[in-house]
Every structure is written in structure tokens, then in C-alpha cells.
Amino acid sequence: MRNPTRQKLGEAEHFLELMKEHLDDDIRFSYYFSAFLSAARSITFHLQKQYSSYANFSDWYYPYQEEMKDDKELKYLHELRVEEVHREPVVTGTTRTRSFTIDVIIGEPSAVTTETKKNTKPASAKIPPKVVKRFLPKFDRVNIIDFCEKQINKLEKIVKKCECTFK
After folding, report:
1. What predicted TM-score, i.e. pTM, was given to this entire model?
2. Strand order in the sheet with 93-97
3. DSSP three-state, residue 167
4. More confident residue, 125 or 165
5. Residue 24: how many other CB atoms lie within 10 Å
């Protein structure tokens, strides 16, 4: 049997993994973050559609809806999705580090020719800055990856409880 709720949860997890893999690529990261937001927000929509025909589903689900409305992180996840989909791409902050290297020629000073000096480029120019952290500036500079993992875990717990109750 096809499980649309699980499929949407898997989709959100997939985009989260791609966010981790492409942390250093600003463009790809923003695409995957956008896709994550849409997929994560859709999980509860699919859950409601999939299980709405079960007796007592609405009564069972209502306390979880209230809990999610009161959860400031899940509420923020919803706000991010609204901003991303309906207004403009979500602006994220980054913390970057840069490594530097030095080429050293050891030997007699006469061995270093003018040609060698001319062709030597600093190795640091070849090493792009590395993203250490991406964060959400509007939410206490929280690490995006940690934030998204935490929200997925919350949503997965609700999905598991629903599956146990209505299968």
C-alpha cells in the first residue's frame, strides 16, 4: 500500500540530506532548503488527508494540532515556508572559514629564478572559504541543519503515533 505521509516525510529527509551535502554551495543549498520547507510542511497535510476517513481521527489529531500551534519552532517552520513560497526566498546567514597555505622553496637563494617567482600563485587563492554553519538570523541564529532535524523528528513522532493508532 502506498503511504503518502511516509513518502512526504522521506522527501523532507532527502532534501535535508542534500542540504548537508551542499552546505558550501549557496545556490544548491537554497534550492534544497526551499524544497525541504515545502516537503516538511506538507507532511501534516498528507497525514490529515490519508487518515481523515478513519473513525475518531479528528478527535485523536486535534491535541497534536494544538501542540504544533503552540510549538514556536514548528510555527517558525511554517512561517519560513510561507515566506519562501509566497513572498521571497528565505535569507540565511553563514559562518565561513578560510584556510591559507604557503608555498616554500627550500634551497640556495640562487636556485629561485625570476621565472619561478613569476609563475608561483598563492595556494590560498585556490581554496574557497568553507561554510561551517548556516543559520536563521530571525530565530536566535539557530543552526539550520540542527533546526530542521529537530522539526523532522517531531513530525515523525506524530506520524508514528498515527500509524500505530490507525493501522
Report:
1. 0.79
2. 93-97, 130-136, 142-143
3. coil
4. 165
5. 15
